[in-house]
Amino acid sequence: MRLNPTSFLPHLKGLRFDQIEIAEHRITLTVTAVRATAACPLCQQRSKTVHSSYTRTVADLPWSGMTVSLRVQTRRFACPVESCERKIFCERLTQFVAVYGRRTDNVRTALQRIVRALGGKAGARLAAHQRIGVSRMTLLRLIHADPTVATPPPRVIGIDDWSRRRGRRYGSIVVDLFLGLLSFHAQPRPLRRLP
């Protein structure tokens, strides 16, 4: 029986599976992009002329507690339009990973769900338990960069100020008492003295 990997990994459609390496706690899949043409990101003209290739490593969701990484063989194409500023371009694999991404879209979505539910430190601990290596600051950057997060207008607002370092660093927190944390703001600001 021959098994097609894209039947259980649909996000990797359009890639050829070349090799699977299984170590003690890691699985590495070597895959190759096989589309005949690629579109230039500037002029959108499709090219068949392969200039060179390179290897890109992308983290995927773990399988049964084992870390999974994809070693993707991608190509650089020559743009067919002579007036285009981009003479050489890399093929885009946007069906499963962002242009400069180091994690698949599935991993990024899972991490965004974790950080929305738990926050930075607790989210990083849960991600590490699930074999997704990520720091708390990376989780916070993910949630701040997500344009789809929409917050309804607050109904009842509570504001609190605190000092992280007395006389030098202060923070403020704005809370909707019905919906939870709306925004977190920490910045240096001068101390306000009461008369």
Secondary-structure element series: EEEEEEEHHHEEE
Rg, Cα atoms, Å:
23 Å
> Approximately what portion of the residues adopt beta-strand conformation?
35-45%
Mean pLDDT: 82
Largest sheet: 5 strands, mixed
Which structural class do the helices and strands define? alpha+beta
Q: What's the total number of strands?
A: 10
The count of helical stretches stands at 3
- Runs in which pLDDT lies below 50 for 5 or more consecutive residues are 181-188
The separation of the N and C termini measures: 83 Å
Global morphology: extended
Please bin the fraction of helical residues. 10-25%
Q: How many domains make up the coordinates? A: 3
How is this fold's topology laid out?
Blueprint: E1 15-22, E2 26-33, E3 38-39, E4 46-47, E5 50-63, E6 66-78, E7 88-90, H1 105-118, H2 120-129, H3 136-145, E8 157-165, E9 169-176, E10 180-187
Helix pairs in contact: 1-2, 1-3, 2-3
Outline the structure in words.
This protein is of the alpha+beta class and 195 residues long. It has 3 domains: 97 residues, no CATH class; 47 residues; 45 residues. 17% of the residues lie in helices and 38% in strands. The protein is built from 3 helices and 10 strands; from the N terminus they run βββββββαααβββ. The strands form 3 sheets. Strands 1, 2, 5, 6 and 7 form a 5-stranded mixed β-sheet that branches. The longest helix is centred in the middle third of the chain and has 14 residues. About 4% of the residues have low confidence.
Gist?
The protein contains three helices and ten strands, in the order βββββββαααβββ.
